[in-house]
Design a protein that fits this description.
alpha/beta; 2 domains; 211 residues; globular; two-stranded antiparallel sheet; Rossmann fold
């Protein structure tokens, strides 16, 4: 699955693996909070402005109701409102990823979107359609809950439990800042310009390619 670039040293030839950038989707490339908010307002029968943007993981501030409130909303959003096809793109994400890809960084999308049982085909199809429509480049598309099982040189993540899991096994992770992860230590970024700079610095520091 992995293509190899070649480098020459003297009379020998040595294989060098790609520099892989592990990219989460929701909250990082796709504006999950912004996209879910109007659907949640419809689901709850309240004005959109009644729902705060300053949410924690699982949106408990929106008072979704009961232990399965978020799961029920998520199912409605995915099945009836095609959530993964209509999410807005985070500002600057597409152009930054296209620039990184053109330089030779291998984009590996790692997302946990197989959340609703018996709806995996639709979740995958909606995801691929969204990536294509918005021109998001990627070499690999991995649907994984345990993201530390998917190798990459560096990662960008927003979910606190995923950041902590990756860091616990020694992975380099930059946090995409939002209201759910304010308590996490850096490195962190507010914008995709910052993420792009960080990835390029790691890339150069690893000696992969001179830019």
């Amino acid at each position: 699955m992995t293509d190899r670039r070649r480098m020459h040293e003297g009379n020998g030839t040595m294989a060098r693996k790609d520099f892989v950038f592990g990219v989460d989707l929701d909250g990082v490339v796709a504006d999950f909070i912004g996209g879910m908010k109007p659907i949640a307002a419809e689901w709850l029968g309240v004005p959109e402005q009644a729902l705060t943007d300053d949410v924690s993981y699982g949106f408990k501030e929106w008072r979704l109701g009961g232990e399965r409130g978020y799961e029920n909303l998520h199912r409605f959003a995915l099945r009836e409102r095609r959530l993964f096809e209509v999410l807005p793109v985070v500002d600057g994400a597409g152009v930054a990823l296209r620039r990184l890809s053109r330089r030779g960084v291998r984009i590996r999308v790692i997302t946990h979107r197989l959340y609703i049982p018996w709806f995996h085909r639709q979740a995958v199809m909606q995801t691929v359609e969204w990536l294509e429509r918005h021109g998001i480049p990627y070499w690999d598309l991995c649907f994984m809950a345990a993201k530390s099982s998917v190798d990459a040189d560096v990662y960008v993540e927003d979910a606190p439990q995923n950041v902590e899991m990756l860091r616990a096994v020694g992975k380099k992770v930059i946090v995409m800042r939002n209201s759910t992860n304010k308590h996490l230590a850096g490195p962190a970024a507010e914008t995709w310009a910052e993420i792009e700079t960080w990835v390029l610095r790691e890339w150069r520091g690893g000696g992969r390619v001179g830019v």
